[in-house]
Design brief:
There is one protein chain. This protein is mainly alpha-helical. Helix content is 69%, strand content 6%. Helix 2 packs antiparallel against helix 8, helix 5 packs across helix 6 and helix 11 packs across helix 13.
Length: 444
C-alpha cells in the first residue's frame, strides 16, 4: 500500500519539529500584525480605510498591506514587515560591488558577519525614515492620534515600528535556522496568504451586489490558474550544460574521467527580482504618498506621489525595469560565469565543443539567453494586477492578491519549501512528495 506523503512529513521527527516551529513563528507574526501601535485609535483607522476602499482610493494602503497581511491598515507594531531589511540588503549588495573596501571586507575571514551587521544597522535607519513618514501619514487622518503630545507620539511610534520590523527579521532568521524554507520569504508568503480569504469574501460580495460581472470573475480565475501553471512550468525548466572531466593521476590514485552537467534554471534568480524590485520602490512610495497628500505639500512631491501610484503606469514601468535589472544583477552575483569557468578549469574539466579559454564567454552567453526571457516573463506577470484593475474594474486589494506578483511569490516560495521537505524526507529514507521521490524538472 502506497504511503501518504503528508503522513510521512509528520513521521520524521526532525521534519515534524521544523514544521511545527515554522507554524508557531508564523502564528506569532500574524498576532503581531493586528496589535496597533500605542497612541492610535483603531476604530478611526477602520472607518478611514473603509471609506478609502469604498471610493477606490486605497491604492497605497493596499500596496503596503500586500506584503504584511493587512498590518499597515491596522497600523500594527509589525506594519513595515521585512521590506526595509530587503531594501538594505539590495543597497549593501550594490555597495559591495561598487566600493572595493567593502568587497575586501566581505572576502575576509568573518567578513560576511560584518556585512550582515552593517545590513542590520542600515535597516534600522531605513525603518526610522519610513516610520517617521508613517507618523506624518497618521497625522493626516482626523482623530487617528489620541496622544496630545505630538513629539511623544512620533518618538513612540518610530521606536515601536522600528523594533517591530527588526523583530520580524529576527523571526524570519529563526525560521531559516530552525524551520522550513527561507524565513524572510516565508514572512511575505504568510502576509499574502492571510489576505486571500478576505479578498475572496469581498469579491463574492461585489458580485452579489452587481458591482462586478460574474463573467469577468470567471475570466480572471481562468487567468489565475493559467498563470500558476505557467509559473510552475517556467520554474521547473533547466538548461543543462554538459561538463567532461579528464582523468588525472594523483599519487597512486586516478581521479576524474567522468561527465556531469551544470543545471541553469530558465529563471535562475527565482522570485528574488520581484521581491527586490517591490521592496526598493517601497521607500520612495511611502515618502511620496505620505508627504504628497497634504494641502501644504510641494507640487513636485504630489506629482511624484501620483506617478508612483501602484495601479498607475509610471510605477509599473519602473517595476518592470527594476525586475529586469535585478534578474541580471542577482544572477551575476550568485552564478558568476567567471568563477564557474575558473572552477571547471582548475578541476580539469571542459565543456564539449567549447575551447577552454572560451568557457567564461560561453557560460555568459547561455546565462544571458536564459535571464532575458525569464525576467520578461516575471515582469509580464507582475503587471497583471494593473491590467485586471483597469480592464475589469477590480479593486486594488483584490487585483494585487489575485494577480501576478502574489502568484509568483506564492508558487516560488512553495516550490522552494517543497524542495527542502523533499530533501529531508529522502534523507530519512521516506518516500518524497512525488511518486518517484523527486520534484521533476524539464531539460531545455
Amino acid at each position: 500500500m502506497a504511503s501518504n506523503p503528508i503522513v510521512n512529513m509528520f513521521k520524521v521527527k526532525e521534519l515534524r519539529d521544523r514544521l511545527f516551529f515554522t507554524f508557531l513563528i508564523l502564528a506569532v507574526f500574524r498576532v503581531g500584525s493586528v496589535i496597533t501601535i500605542p497612541g492610535i485609535d483603531a476604530n478611526v483607522l477602520i472607518q478611514y480605510f473603509d471609506d478609502l476602499a469604498a471610493q477606490n482610493k486605497n491604492a497605497f494602503a493596499s500596496y503596503m498591506d500586500f506584503f504584511v497581511g493587512g498590518a499597515f491598515s491596522n497600523f500594527s507594531i509589525l506594519m513595515l514587515g521585512v521590506m526595509p531589511y530587503i531594501s538594505m540588503q539590495i543597497i549593501m549588495q550594490l555597495a559591495v560591488i561598487i566600493f572595493p573596501s567593502l568587497k575586501r571586507i566581505s572576502q575576509e575571514d568573518g567578513g560576511q558577519r560584518k556585512i550582515a551587521s552593517y545590513i542590520r544597522l542600515g535597516t534600522i535607519v531605513v525603518c526610522l525614515i519610513q516610520s517617521f513618514g508613517i507618523t506624518v501619514y497618521a497625522n493626516n487622518i482626523p482623530g487617528c492620534i489620541v496622544l496630545q503630545n505630538q513629539v511623544a507620539f512620533k518618538i513612540l511610534a518610530m521606536l515601536t515600528v522600528t523594533t517591530g520590523s527588526m523583530v520580524t527579521v529576527w523571526l524570519g532568521d529563526q525560521i531559516t535556522a530552525r524551520g522550513i524554507g527561507n524565513g524572510i520569504s516565508m514572512m511575505i508568503f504568510a502576509g499574502i496568504v492571510a489576505r486571500l480569504p478576505n479578498a475572496v469574501i469581498e469579491l463574492a460580495q461585489m458580485v452579489k451586489a452587481g458591482e462586478i460581472q460574474l463573467v469577468f470573475v470567471i475570466l480572471v480565475l481562468i487567468m489565475f490558474i493559467a498563470v500558476i501553471a505557467l509559473v510552475i512550468f517556467e520554474e521547473s525548466g533547466q538548461r543543462k550544460i554538459p561538463v567532461h572531466y579528464a582523468k588525472r593521476v594523483v599519487g597512486r590514485k586516478m581521479y576524474g574521467g567522468q561527465s556531469t552537467y551544470i543545471p541553469f534554471k530558465v529563471n535562475p534568480s527565482n522570485v528574488i527580482p520581484l521581491i527586490f524590485a517591490s521592496s526598493i520602490l517601497t521607500l520612495p512610495l511611502t515618502l511620496a504618498s505620505t508627504f504628497g497628500q497634504g494641502q501644504n505639500s510641494a507640487k513636485w512631491v504630489s506629482a511624484l506621489a501620483r506617478f508612483l501610484t501602484p495601479n498607475g503606469w509610471g510605477y509599473n514601468i519602473l517595476l518592470v525595469i527594476l525586475i529586469i535589472f535585478f534578474a541580471y544583477f542577482y544572477t551575476q552575483v550568485t552564478l558568476n560565469p567567471t568563477e564557474i569557468a575558473k572552477n571547471i578549469r582548475e578541476n580539469g574539466g571542459s565543456i564539449p565543443g567549447v575551447r577552454t579559454d572560451k568557457t567564461e564567454e560561453y557560460l555568459t552567453k547561455i546565462l544571458n539567453r536564459l535571464i532575458l526571457p525569464g525576467s520578461l516573463f516575471l515582469a509580464l506577470i507582475a503587471v497583471i494586477p494593473t491590467i485586471i484593475q483597469n480592464l475589469f474594474g477590480f479593486p486594488q486589494s483584490i487585483s494585487m492578491l489575485m494577480g501576478g506578483t502574489s502568484l509568483i511569490i506564492l508558487v516560488g516560495v512553495d516550490l522552494d519549501t517543497m524542495s527542502q521537505v523533499e530533501a529531508l524526507l529522502k534523507m530519512h529514507h521516506q518516500d518524497g512528495l512525488t511518486k518517484k521521490g523527486k520534484i521533476r524538472s524539464r531539460n531545455l
